[in-house]
Specification:
alpha/beta, Hypothetical Protein Ychn, Chain: A, globular
Length: 91
């Protein structure tokens, strides 16, 4: 499953349903959690994690992203969506 995360607060809930074959993409304000200094960054440790480049750039945090986070563009987002049969958006 692809978990599309809009808010960092949803990361704690995803831990309850996340499977090893899943992926998480951070979009909108959730991209702030890709910074190792963010208080919810530790919730990402067990995830196959991606962040949308345009949202990182729009918020001025592109240079603060952990190296453990894969930065992708919209084409990468489409590829992730096609790879995962199901997706769930978290607000």
């Amino acid at each position: 499953m692809l978990h599309i995360v809009k808010s960092p607060l949803a990361l704690e809930e995803i831990n309850k349903v996340y499977l090893e074959s899943d992926a998480v993409i951070l979009i909108q304000d959730a991209v702030y959690a890709a910074n190792p200094q963010h208080n919810l960054y530790s919730a990402l440790n067990s995830f196959n994690i991606f962040a949308l480049q345009s949202d990182l750039e729009a918020r001025g945090v592109i240079n603060q992203v952990s190296s453990a986070v894969n930065i992708i563009d919209y084409d990468g987002f489409v590829t992730l969506t096609a790879k995962h049969r199901n997706s769930l958006t978290w607000d």
